[in-house]
Design brief:
Elements lengths: L3 H11 L3 E6 L11 H12 L3 E5 H17 L7 E5 L6 H10 L3 E4 L6 H10 L2 E7 L3 H7 L8 E5 L8 E2 H6 L15 E6 L9 E5 H15 L6 E4 L6 H13 L2 E5 L4 H11 L3 E4 L1 H13 L14 E5 L5 H10 L4 E8 L4 E6 L13 E2 L4 E5 L12 E6 L6 E2 L3 H7 E2 L2 E10 L5 E6 L4 E3 L2 E3 L1 H8 L5 E11 L3 E10 L7 H7 L11 E4 L12 H9 L11
Parallel strand pairs: 1-11, 3-4, 3-5, 5-6, 6-7, 10-11, 10-12, 12-13, 13-14, 26-27
Antiparallel strand pairs: 1-2, 8-9, 9-19, 14-15, 15-16, 17-18, 18-21, 20-21, 21-22, 23-24, 25-26
Helix pairs in contact: 1-3, 3-4, 5-6, 8-9, 11-12
Length: 544
């Protein structure tokens, strides 16, 4: 069945129960008030600090938007793009698009105007829904996207070149649209993160989306009593597909606009959150805030918080060791996935396997995984090769890119581009992206291994390792070090700390700088390569 059936079911069974809550601390004023108290006091002045929506209202809003875009000429198979910050309108718009039979095309809110234009054209988008943060970017390209016939604007003060979503959707019927949708119908186009160049358009079916609901719920056991805190951007498969477990269970979720440790802990406390998915930097920030005294755990009610899980990038074991010191009763899980595999879950650690922290885990529910060489032949246990996965959430294709599709889809297997190995117990460990491997003097260096090692130093907040050109060795490893606030760190300290590494793995350059990460937590290594290949290096240690 299509994924929209879960929303219809929840509306019928749990219509009066809360489905979604949006909290926007940027509208904060009276910090001594709870979210709910602030909403009551400030609703008329600064807009809602806290909004909530029942399952019945969620379904009604989705139907209204579906009927609106059908009235405007959207047909089954057309593409409708979403360019919004996380907000309570996001998911009803997404499901409205699916109910119309069109394909939802979520866009990264960090895209420049040119990148937005590129993605709209690549995906053959004919309608765009956007928010106030993007007015300038859309206005800059609106005359260059003639195939996008309709621009709907979400929010107050609608610009003259767009139409008001609130005005037109509010008067549309809330009945179920008369559109037949099957499991194998196309449902959505997601874009790759673009960490290796311009993003590719990834096509998924309704069956693929449904599979992610089932996999997520099997892994984390969501029940109707759970409350999921969603912080990462909804345009990405990671956040949304973790929320799909809540959709399947009929349980509530909170959309938090902000990543401050105080905001996260306060939301968990006041909304009685039970499950939180964090990116590595946010988990580090929470621990740093606790250790610096910026936040005090005794100020929050966190007893109901049962599960913290992390995905989107390798997780340093040292981070989880620190986490368990402050949250000893938490279940913990690591999730691995790609947008091409409908987000997280094709490999996952499992809450029962915390003794294997450092691994990404075993094949997820309904999935297979294997480590292969350059010829696609499985490698022996313990040997490094490329991770390939097969399962119900593998993409249909890269939209309009058969060559790229053929390069990663082979006999049903998705070639992930991640280098990994499997231990004697069948647990998979990532070592790096295939394209990020550094070859220095004939030796392969896997940056993730060095990054994990460096993050074990008590003064280091984050680390990234990239290859830089070298006349004699071909490449050398350069470590970009982000120091924790309040600490000072020297090159000599890093050199001494790295002395326990095999000599060929030691970074040859030490660079003190901020480590850039995209909204899903992945290190933006192309930016670092562009910055430092040009020779703009500060505080460099040339030899170890």
């Amino acid at each position: 069945m299509p994924i929209t059936n879960f929303l219809i079911r929840n509306s019928e069974l749990y219509g009066d129960e809360i489905s979604l809550i949006e909290i926007n601390p940027e509208l904060r004023g009276k910090r001594n008030l709870s979210w709910k108290e602030f909403a009551l006091v400030e609703a008329g002045a600064n807009g809602y600090y806290r909004k909530e929506m029942t399952w019945a209202e969620f379904n009604r809003r989705a139907n209204k938007f579906a009927n609106l875009i059908l009235e405007r000429g959207i047909k089954k198979g057309d593409k409708v793009a979403i360019l919004l910050m996380n907000c309570i309108e996001w998911l009803p718009i997404y499901f409205g698009i699916l109910k119309s039979g069109a394909l939802a095309v979520p866009l990264n809110y960090r895209y420049t105007a040119e990148e937005i234009k590129y993605c709209l054209q690549l995906a053959d988008v004919s309608m765009l829904v956007f928010g106030e943060e993007f007015i300038d970017r859309i206005e800059a390209i609106r005359n260059e996207i003639p195939d996008v016939k309709t621009l709907f604007y979400v929010g107050p003060n609608c610009p003259e070149f767009a139409e008001s979503y609130d005005k037109f959707a509010s008067v549309c019927p809330c009945t179920e649209p008369n559109v037949s949708i099957s499991d194998e119908d196309d449902a959505a186009i997601y874009f790759s993160s673009g960490t290796t160049g311009f993003p590719k358009a990834i096509l998924h079916s309704h069956a693929s989306l449904v599979s992610s609901c089932i996999t997520e719920q099997k892994h984390h056991g969501q029940t109707r009593e759970d409350n999921f805190l969603c912080i990462p951007p909804l345009y990405h498969t990671g956040a949304k597909m973790h929320w799909f477990g809540s959709l399947l269970a009929g349980s509530k979720a909170v959309l938090l606009r902000g990543v401050s440790p105080e905001w996260i802990l306060r939301t968990i406390s006041e909304e009685k959150v039970t499950i939180v998915w964090l990116l590595v930097p946010w988990a580090q920030d929470i621990l740093d805030a606790i250790e610096s005294g910026e936040v005090k755990l005794e100020d929050y009610n966190l007893e109901q918080w049962r599960l913290m899980h992390i995905g989107a990038q390798p997780v340093p074991p040292s981070l989880i060791k620190r986490w368990k010191e402050y949250f000893p009763n938490h279940l913990y899980d690591t999730n691995y996935g790609l947008s091409e595999s409908i987000g997280p879950g094709c490999v996952h650690l499992g809450v029962e396997n915390i003794h294997k922290v450092g691994a990404i885990g075993k094949p997820g529910y309904g999935w297979e995984a294997c480590i292969v060489d350059d010829n696609g032949i499985p490698v022996p246990q313990g040997q490094i090769g490329e991770l390939v996965v097969r399962g119900p959430g593998v993409m249909k294709c890269y939209y309009k890119n058969p060559e790229a599709t053929a390069s990663v889809l082979k006999n049903g297997w998705l070639f992930t581009g991640d280098m990994a190995y499997m231990d004697e117990d069948g647990f998979i460990y990532l070592v790096d992206r295939k394209k990020d491997v550094i070859i220095t003097g004939g030796e392969n260096i896997y940056p993730v291994q060095i990054e994990d090692f460096l993050r074990g130093y008590h003064k280091i907040k984050d680390a990234a390792v990239i290859g830089l050109p070298h006349k004699r060795l071909g490449e050398i490893a350069a470590a970009i070090i982000e120091v924790k606030p309040g600490y000072e760190c020297t090159e000599e300290e890093i050199m001494e700390f790295c002395s326990s590494l095999p000599r060929y793995k030691r970074p040859r350059k030490i660079i003190f700088d901020k480590v850039p990460r995209n909204p899903t937590g992945k290190i933006e290594k192309p930016k670092l390569r562009e910055k430092y290949h040009a020779g703009n290096i500060v505080k460099v240690q040339t030899e170890l």
